[in-house]
Design a protein that fits this description.
- The protein has a domain of 176 residues.
- 36% of the residues lie in helices and 11% in strands.
- The chain is built from nine helices and six strands.
- This is Transposase putative helix-turn-helix domain-containing protein.
């Protein structure tokens, strides 16, 4: 079987230089001789500007015009369809509870292998509760939180085959998941009614998501121990404590969050740091001002005559 002919681009550049190895290897000997002959003018390198003259590929005259037209079309499309404005500040250092003295703390947890499995189990049950509330809200968009909780959290309304493993997570934690779904539904409907967004569709939480979280009460975390019975976190301070170093963490407010990010677990909670620990105490605000540089220089010259 005959060998396939060389690609067109190889043939187009093979004859551009006497020093370029040809497709059939005819120039290899010349190239080797050049490399070995120190007196040869092209000894330094066989591929240089002196021995090559590749042609610049031709371009159509209308290329720039086409690019300008595409840019104009894209600009018109973006002007007609502006991106939605999101007022959520993901890196805001302060909580949005109206109290600027509440600061959110974040601490990485280091659970054991058994504790990781227990936390994943709890996160799965809470995701199931949230998705059950979402499914109910899709059918009943105007449902009250009492109705959502009764359908998604109360044991008597759960499927009989799911009760043994769903009820292993405390009622209060599952109730918080249902409340999150109801709040998301209310906020979405209000945004549609005010014209901020054209429509709203509450989404389910995916099992394969790299991020998951659930809320706990202050009394569910005592002395560095996450107190969720029936999940295999262990019993007693020595076994149920989730490692985080030597620091003793006390959760004093409800709605603390156990969060998973890419396989790592974190505890997020709020603390009342007091005004003296703020970066800029609110009481000092009226006494702070900015001085223009030119005005300050003029005042210095006047003071020194």
């Amino acid at each position: 079987m005959a060998a396939a002919p060389p690609a067109p681009w190889i043939g187009s550049v093979a004859g551009e230089s006497v020093s370029w190895p040809g497709v059939d290897g005819s120039h290899v000997a010349d190239w080797t001789a050049i490399r070995q002959n120190a007196d040869h003018p092209e000894h330094r390198w066989w591929f240089n500007a002196k021995s090559t003259s590749l042609e610049i590929p031709e371009r159509g005259d209308n290329t720039l015009e086409l690019l300008r037209n595409l840019s104009d079309q894209l600009r018109d499309h973006l002007d007609a369809n502006p991106a939605p404005v999101h007022h959520i500040h993901h890196h805001a250092p302060w909580s949005g509870q109206g109290n600027k003295n509440l600061k959110t703390r974040r601490l990485r947890l280091r659970p054991s292998t058994e504790q990781k499995e227990a936390l994943r189990k709890a996160a799965g049950i809470i995701r199931w509760t949230y998705n059950r509330a979402v499914a109910y809200l899709r059918e009943h968009p105007q449902a009250t939180f009492h109705q959502v909780r009764q359908h998604s959290v109360n044991e008597e309304h759960l499927p009989e085959e799911c009760r043994p493993w769903v009820t292993q997570v405390l009622y209060s934690i599952r109730q918080a998941a249902a409340k999150d779904a109801h709040i998301a539904q209310e906020n979405g409907l209000q945004s549609v009614a005010s014209g901020q967004i054209p429509d709203f569709h509450l989404e389910f939480r995916r099992k394969r998501a790299m991020f998951s979280s659930f809320k706990i009460r202050a009394r569910d975390w005592r002395n560095g121990c996450l107190q969720i019975s029936g999940l295999g976190l262990g019993t007693g301070p020595g076994k149920s404590r989730i490692g985080y170093g030597n620091r003793v963490v006390e959760v004093k407010h409800d709605d603390a969050i156990i969060k998973q990010e890419n396989g790592r677990w974190f505890l997020l909670w709020t603390e009342d740091v007091g005004e003296e620990e703020l970066a800029i105490p609110a009481a000092l605000g009226p006494r702070m001002c900015a001085i223009d540089v030119s005005a300050r220089a003029k005042a210095d010259r006047a003071a020194h005559g």
